[in-house]
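Human: Respectfully, please carefully check these tokens:
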Amino acid sequence: MNWTKEEVILIVNDYFEMFRLELDSKPYNKTSHRKKLAPLLNNRENSIEFKHRNISGVLANMGLPYIKGYKPLFRYQQLLEDEVIVFLENNKSFFEKEFKKFADEKVEPNTKKINFETLIDKKSPTKTKVTEKEPVFLPIKTNYLAKEQSNRNLGEMGEQLVYNYEKWRLIKAGKEKLAERVEWVSKEKGDGTGFDILSKQTNGKDMFIEVKTTKLAKETPIYFSRNEWKFALLKNKDFYLYRVFNFTDKPQMFINRGNYESFCSLRPQTFKGYF
């Protein structure tokens, strides 16, 4: 059952109240918020978390950060998107400043020893058909999820993690000679090759690895260039996406093999016009 406009406004306000605190590194309790909100929403306590995740989905669809604990759900009613737009338009100066800080901040190296045995999340997000339309009006024009992904500091640390993991994986398999041949291509040769790390399967076959890193959940959209897309098509059977997520909390990653169309739904971001 769809929510009324009044109910949607209440839950949008509640979400952004928590989000303000999170962006300001202040503690809050999701359960307390949910219990306080339930009587105002016909006691739909079980539905509140899903609606909060829908709001994360709206924000991610706009290219904006979201509350870390509410993984995006992308099937939502248009009214929810409309009210998120209204809220952001009315609070643009605060959130744009915070989103910029989120995307540009320098990430400190994780001082905890990474356990490579538990690094891989074997449940990668399933490919779903995109049903939500691109928002016609964006109150915040900058795609801060794309800016986060292009944050050089964050990207290099994600690639370092994958580079170390690949060496560990091959050494563990008794393939020390192959481990010595793992190359951090983007660092040694720069961007533009269509992949970041050249590794090896245990049989010695090449693995062309593209690393995409985020501080948010594994459902966060990825962004890639036409060159990366074409390279994945060319090296279809030997191309791997390593998606590193939750980087600043507890880094994990999932792995997909094949071209981008085989594991995610694509949306064009730009057009080129000729005269």
Notes: The first strand starts at residue 183 and ends at 184.
